[in-house]
Amino acid sequence: MIAILLGPPGAGKGTYSGKLIDIFKVPQISTGDILRANVKQGTELGKKAKDFMDKGALVPDSLIVEIVEDRIKAADCKNGFLLDGFPRTVEQADSLEAIFKKNGLKLDRVINIIVDRDVLFKRLTGRRMCKACGANFNVYTLPPKAEGVCDKCGGELYQRNDDKPDTIANRLDVYEKQTSPLIDYYRKKQALSDINASTGSIDDIVKAITGILGKK
Ligand code: AMP
Prior knowledge:
The chain is α/β, with parallel strands linked by helices. The protein has one domain (2-116, 166-212): Rossmann fold (3-Layer(aba) Sandwich). The protein contains nine helices and eight strands. The strands form two sheets. The protein has a five-stranded parallel β-sheet, with helices on both faces. It has a three-stranded antiparallel β-sheet with strand order 6-5-7. Helix 1 (13-24) packs across helix 9, helix 2 crosses helix 3 (44-55) and helix 6 (117-126) crosses helix 7 (165-179). The protein starts with a strand and ends with a helix. The mean pLDDT is 94. Residues 9, 31-32, 35, 52-53, 56-59, 64, 85-86, 88, 92, 162, 171 line the site of adenosine monophosphate (AMP).
């Protein structure tokens, strides 16, 4: 199963992916997580990406495409994978298509997660992430059992730099301008399914996505 989760920042792509990978037994490939890990480790990639990320801008396509290509060739991707946060521009989508062609892979489905902008704002300002394992929580919608502490590993929770209000507005604008053209791009290829996720529980939305991707 090869699928893409498409949707604005705060749509819940990371949260749904976390559940879908258990159901489909394929890895999640989150370019945001890969970049954050590189920033944390202070790699060359991390140093180049950090300023873009802090401003809520996209990092240049040239930094990201090769990483994704390497990642999907790894052994754990042999039964498929779930892309979260990639592609984010038409250029990246074209590159992905070329990578799939070169490696004999076929995209099954793109899930377009639709969420109202005011709901996104609330989700993003409430979001907290674990410093140790990267798990996501939300002070409004998915609070941890103990404030500031990760339920999964006991790590410390923090608010991402790019989840501050000014940066959030920029990220949502960047999504509209640079990423939302992918909705038409994949709809024209008849590869897109819409999911409205402004309301409904996480489990309901995961169930709807699972139905589209072919497991009951
Ligand atoms: P995310 O965790 O998906 O919200 O990504 C966090 C940040 O990482 C984004 O705001 C971008 O700066 C950067 N980023 C993640 N994925 C991509 C991508 N596919 N292309 C360009 N920049 C990306």
